[in-house]
Amino acid sequence: MFIQTESTPNVDSLKFKPGVPVLTNATAEFLTPRDAMASPLASALFRIDGVQSVFFGNDFVTITRDPDANWQLMRPEIYGSIMDFFATGQPVMKVGGDASGVRGDTEILDDDSETVAMIKELLDTRIRPTIQEDGGDIEYRDFVDGIVKVRLQGSCRTCDSSTITLKNGIENMLMHYIPEVQGVEQVLDPHEQVSNDEFKKFERTLEQHELGGT
C-alpha cells in the first residue's frame, strides 16, 4: 500500500490517503480515545504519541497533532498503523458498535423545509468538497431564525483561518443563493466549549496581571 501525505492549511494537521476507501458517503471525527473505541483504526492511531484527533473522510484520514509533537517522529507510526489495519480487512467502524461519530448530516429528510433542503444541498455539493480537499469537513447542525448552525471538523476545526472560512466562504455562498439565510455560526461540542471558556478565563487573568503591573 502506498500512502500519500498532503499538507493542509492547518500546520498541526496532515491528510493521509491510503488509496482505498475509508468511509463511504459519511465522515467521522474522534476527539478522544474514548470516541475512538467505535473504530479499530482510530483506536490504533490514538495509541501514537502526539495524536490529538482523528478524522475519516471518504478516501482519507486526517491526523491532528498536539502542537508540540514532531511529525517526523509520528509519520512512520501513522503509516504503519494505517497499512497494518487495512491489511486485516476489518471494517473501519465496528459492526454494531457505537457509530455516533459517523456523519450523514446533509441527507435531506421528509420533514425538511425547502430552505433547509437547499442549505443541505449547497453544503454537500458546493462547500463540502472544497473543505474536504483541505482535510476537513463541515457538519450541518440546525437552521434557526435565519442562522445556519454548522460545526467544522478535521483540520478545519483547529485551524487559525477557520473563522475566515466560515464567514468569507460558507456564509457568503449560502446568503448569495438562499435569501432566507442571514448568517452562519459555528457550534462547539460541550468539551470544546469548556476548553474555549477556560482559554478566555486565562486571557482575562493575563490581562489583569498586566494591568496590575503597569
Give an account of the 3D structure:
The chain is an alpha+beta fold and 214 residues long. It is 40% helix and 22% strand. The chain contains five helices and nine strands. It has helices spanning 40-46, 71-88, 114-133, 162-177, 190-213; strands spanning 4-7, 13-17, 27-30, 51-56, 61-65, 102-103, 136-144, 147-154, 183-186. The strands form two sheets. It has a six-stranded antiparallel beta sheet, with helices on one face. The termini are far apart.
Order of helices and strands: EEEHEEHEHEEHEH
Question: What is the tally of helical segments?
Answer: 5
Roughly what is the average pLDDT, rounded to an integer? 83
Shape: globular
Q: Determine the fraction of residues in helical runs and give it as a percent range.
A: 25-40%
- What kind of sheet is the major sheet? 6 strands, antiparallel
Number of DSSP strands? 9
Approximate strand percentage: 15-25%
What radius of gyration results from the CA coordinates?
19 Å
Uncertain residue ranges? 97-101, 193-200
The main sheet orders its strands as: 1-2-5-4-3-6
Structural class estimated from helices and strands = alpha+beta
Distance between the termini: 60 Å
Topology (SSEs and partners):
Blueprint: E1 4-7, E2 13-17, E3 27-30, H1 40-46, E4 51-56, E5 61-65, H2 71-88, E6 102-103, H3 114-133, E7 136-144, E8 147-154, H4 162-177, E9 183-186, H5 190-213
Parallel strand pairs: 8-9
Antiparallel strand pairs: 1-2, 2-5, 3-4, 3-6, 4-5, 7-8
Helix pairs in contact: 1-2
Which key terms come to mind for this protein?
alpha+beta, 3-stranded mixed beta sheet, globular
